[in-house]
Description:
The chain is α+β, with helices and mostly antiparallel strands. Among the domains are: 65-173, PAS domain (Beta-Lactamase, 2-Layer Sandwich); 216-324, 2-Layer Sandwich (Beta-Lactamase); 388-533, 2-Layer Sandwich (Heat Shock Protein 90), CATH 3.30.565. The chain is built from 15 helices and 14 strands. It is rod-shaped.
Amino acid sequence: MKSKIGLNNFFKMKLKLHTKLILFNTIIIMLVALLLSAYSTSLIAKIVERYIGEKALAVSKVVSKNPYVIEKVKKEEGGGELQKYIEQLRKDVGAEFIVIGNENEIRLTHPDEWKIGKKMVGGDSWRALKYGESYISKAVGTLGPSIRGKTPVFDENNNIIGIVSVGFLIKDIRQIINKYATRIKLLVIELLIISTILSVILAKNVKKSIFNLEPVEIASLYNEKNTILESVHESIFALDKDGYFTTINKKGSEILGLPIKSIRGTHYSKYFICSEIEKALKAGEKFINIDLFIYNIPYLANIMPIKINEKLSGCVITLRSKDEFTVLAKQLSYFQEYTNMLRAQHHEFLNKLHTLNGFLSIGDYDTALKYINDEITNDVSFYNKITGTTSDKYLIALLIGKYNYANEKGIILDIDENSSLFNIPEHISINDLIIILGNLIDNAIEASLESKEKKVFISFYDYSNELIFEVTDTGKGIPQEIENHIFEKGVSNKQTKGRGIGLYQSYQLAKKYGGSISYKRYKNETVFTVILPKEVNK
């Protein structure tokens, strides 16, 4: 319990993560090294003791079977030649003592010659003398504590006539063990130094991988991230490099109709069909305001790749409801057309005031009055014609704006009085319709500037299951070299930079509803025809 509290206090210390990692790793490695050192020393001690004990036993067995030794033990002739022989053997094997005793444990040989003839001590010889066993024992003799190998000596009739005791002093064994222990300690010290260096390197790499932030800062950023994710109106999805969801905000889970936990870890292809996502994940491309459908509902998506150290690690997708933008676009389009209409009217009105001022200045009041009546009749006539063909205020605003813009450019813009469009299907965005017609009318006005007649004629019909729009101009038509590519992005018969967008945009919007745009050239006219199905394109 105390160690656990101490560990908690360690992590609560006001130290930097870098320092904590170094200290923690060093302490752990030190504890492991000390435990391994103690275990290794203990294991080596056991191995050395066992090895020396087996060596002592092996020597005692060899000596006990030596015929010369057996003969001397049988005759109980101690000292003398036997002493010299055994002492030389003791020195050769490195034993502390080789003692031979008779069946009564009376010494026949001993390193200290004055102890020959005296009884063996230690009390560990009885098993050999009584049962004829060979074994290893520990006992305290006249030379000190030792490990001994005991073997009985048998005569030719297999009778026990004596004993051989070979011993190594424990203090000498400990010196051997201490040599190994010293080496282990040096190795432990080296490991601690190396581990400390590696801990420093590891700590630096860990800090670098988390952008040198402290845990408190990371926690703060995490909370900030969650707050930001939930505060924005857009739906946000983060994918890893393989396309699996890692982060989703609440708005995103509402769009998919699933809890965040159920979405996280699943692949984006389960919900999105979007080739741009794959391009962002594989090639690092970014996409702004692209169309993305979820459950057949359109959204505007931004896709931004995520890079860490210049390596792709995923992407972020933000989604916004296209319906919201459609409403705003409708309003903006209406105000733009209304602004254009007012600007054109203002400009035209100034010109007419100047003309009227001229008539009045020269006193030609009849002509001035006729001029005023003609202008009122023309404007009222066009307005009545528009309102008699459609009731959509956005379309009316568009046509009035284009009418005034055409007048300003010296172009006669007229509408087929037989046109009729009072029920625009709900699935067709009026904003998209205005863009389609607006681009075609602008192109027609521009083309007619170069013609002698300078006329643009517009007609539209609600025919059976289709809406049909036609825009006719008196321009020179489409150049032959680009007529097969006129609906491609960037293709234009004008050399001005940034052209070639309008027809491409109108063509794409018509395709969106399963419709089409085509054109045909007559003698002195070019007719663009737009056909939009009234039923939803599935």
